[in-house]
Queue: 4 jobs
Job 1
Amino acid sequence: MARGKTLSVVFKANHQHQLMAFPPSLDELVASDHPVRVVHEVLERVDITLLLKQYKPGGTSSYHPRMLLKALVYAYVNNIYSSRKIEQALAESIYFMWLTGMSKPDHNTINRFRGQRLQKTLQPIFTQVVLLLCEEGLLSLKDLYTDGTKIEANANRYTFVWGKAIRTSKERIKQQLDELWKYAQSVAAAELDDTDPSGFDKIDKEKVTATIEKINQALRDKKVTGKVRQKLNYARKNWPAVLDKYEKQEKIMGNGRSSYSKTDPDATFMHMKEDHMRNGQLKPGYNVQISTNNQYIASYSIHSSTTDTPVLIPHLEQHIRTLGIRPNNVTADAGYGSEQNYQWLEKKRITAYVKHPHFDRDQNKNLRSKKPYSVDKFQYDQQKDRYYCPAGKPMKNIGSYTRTTKTKAGIAQTLTRYQAKKCAGC
């Protein structure tokens, strides 16, 4: 270029408003290896017969459930969970447009689909996807890696029901009823029979009502203090209704948990990993168990238990029942270590790579030295059926006791332990 000439900036041409004789198709704009094509191909092979049964014939036309399922799955893959944001993506993203064929269901349609129709059929669809991944060799159901996490429920943190509070209140009513009965016996023993309320194994609305009526009949013509009359009137008006409320609350709570949220009865109050206030506040939530292989989720289950130990068995039972394949190996952390879990895994011929809860503690020599008479330091002689303490002295079995533990779905398991008297050298 000649000296003295200046350089000028060159821009590429912008043809925003120029018409195209042959407009590009959406298929040309989506790369062949884009994840949206994987979602499309996988869900095209899924049987949605159960999902189709959720629709009733007649009325106006509906969006096809397979299209809605594809849009929902692809939105979740891209961390989009809000129904309004999914609606926005359907109108703006070429990948959503390609996946749905330019259909634009609104947020109400998306919410109804995933909240009503998809809720009962999600597990079978998920199972089919897992089996398809197995056929492609992307994961194996023979080796599982299991862990759990707590997910906070969308419920009020301050409206709750505690099982311990119910039991305390019922015990207090029983005690006060027993005091009234004893007072009535001291004033009118002849009018009362031997039905002592303190002997009730279970106090309920009918028993309390009948007992209060007997006490009122016995004290009708007797000289009774105003305080007792007031207490009897309060008990007659309030205790039956309160006990009826407690019975309904206990029915909602069930046997396997100790609390629930009034705004979400399925949620149990438990400790969460996210504790921003650092005060150990209990929050309503769910215990979600997930088994993975090759970084794919192979199965999941939702529980109300506040700990992981009692949910390993029901989680694996659901895995075997839904997928029809028994794993050969299960790996989990020490939170799942228990005698019951080890026995169940051994019975099912599943190799367990599960540490017991005190494994890491036992590896520390300083901690081990502080407990010279811990259980693992006792020696057992199988021929003589006898234990020897760390000092080498024989232990004498003086009896046994039975302990009942809460396990899956509140089912109780009975465990037997031996009590042994310490030897003279100990």
Job 2
Amino acid sequence: MRIVLLGAPGSGKGTQSQLLVKAYGIPQISTGDLLREAVAKGSELGRRAKSAMDAGKLVDDATVLGMIRERLSRPDAAKGFILDGFPRNIPQAEALAKMLDEMGTPLQSVVLLNLDLGILFKRLSGRRICESCGRVFNIYTAAPSALAHCDECGEEHRLIQRPDDKEEVIGKRLDVYEAQTKPLISHYAAAGLLRVVDADADMDTVFKNIRKAIDTVPSFKR
């Protein structure tokens, strides 16, 4: 199974990626994680990425694609992969498709987690993270009792808000998504790869619907 999870910030891509990892035994490949790992290791690609980031620039697509190619060569990706956070625009999608075709591992499906932007804004602005264990909560949707104790670490919660979840930043993040990433929906629909899943539901329902969408992919070997 070789898929891309597509959706705006707050649509649940990270959560659903982890559920897919457990269900199918294939890795989630996050470009953010790859960048941090490469920089920490001091690899050639990592040094290129660090140089760009230290200069306040975006890491170029060729470097990111090189990291993805390197990650896909590992044994755990032999049965497939879940790309989360890449591509973000059509040029990246075209470059990714070319690379995957060269590797003989073309995409089989692109799953869009579709959610109204008003709901997304509430999800993001209400999101809080336990500083002790990383568990994610939402002050608008989580019951007060759920916020009183952490099942993961057994300690009182120390809830923090990510800087990019503040209201003044969220609008800019969604604007970037609308301008750059949303055109990918039409791009992948035209390629016959797009599967749309309603993300305005509980986690388990969304996951079941993702699996149903994946089951419609003719080339997916179960």
Job 3
Amino acid sequence: MEKQELVDLSHAIEHGMITYEGLPGPHICDFWTREGSAAHYDDGSSFQIGRIDMVANTGTYLDSPFHRFADGADLAGLGLEQLAALPGLLVRAEAQAIDAAAFEGIDVAGKAVLVHTGWDRHWRTDAYARGHPFLTEAAARLLAARGAVLVGIDSYNIDDTATRARPVHTILLGADIPICEHMTNLAALPEADFAFTAVPPKIAGMGTFPVRAFAALG
């Protein structure tokens, strides 16, 4: 059997890094050190048990409907069929405000629609949060109406953070369409003929968590 090419679409999570302004970076440390654990074994074995304290919106993460709506599906409520091996579609966009026209004439039904803006080049710089690309309300309405099953973007937020409204989150999550934000390496993907996976842990009572997002080509 021919081995599929896998393309990693996630940022690494590192100690202290800032994903979103105003939210703390993760604290990563040892809970059980190798040196301390060695005393428990007679055969020279030692183990590390790590600890991470972080907010859910860290790194490349997936939003479930519960992130926006109290009665929406939380992470544990999402089915694997919503997250794994989804037919993928890449849309390359150069505008800051990515409108419905970017998706006209494209069959998005049943697809994970990934929007490549190239904004990941600013990851972990001050520029990342300034003037970032985003989808318009009209674009979100089109994607929801035409049956997209997941929407991702390689930008700071899928909504315009210069305003005090979040219509894209409201529309997509209200239609049970998960959102994957802060993606990277989308330039490595073709426009179609790939399967997309972004599966968070099965956590009840949370709406967002980091994922190892990836595409399988061919």
Job 4
Amino acid sequence: MRSFFANLNPLVRGLAVVALIALVVVVLNLGNTVAALFLIARIAFPLAIAFFLFLLWRERRSDIETWSDRERRVFYAAVAVGIVAVLAYTYARLLGVQLAGFTALALVLTLGLCAWSAYRVWRDAHTYGN
């Protein structure tokens, strides 16, 4: 039996696991439990991303401290605006605020501009010569 699952295509094996989990949820009527777990995951996921970014910053802060004051301010402002935009969008949806498509477009454009600003500052700080 073990060799059967080991020789099975990974996609088919993954779909079988998902189907088995869905079957258990339907048979045991665990829809409310799954909804609660999904809500917890929607709250925890942005916090996990923020924690990862914090760890990344803590590892690279000695490099960032060598930048000029202007570069540092622009970099930190871009990161802060990006984090605030994502958290505002995520938690507005959790609070039941109806968001239109333009709100999602504004989020994507804001994140794009923040990423571009942070990248430009990082690239300028790491360009030597010229």
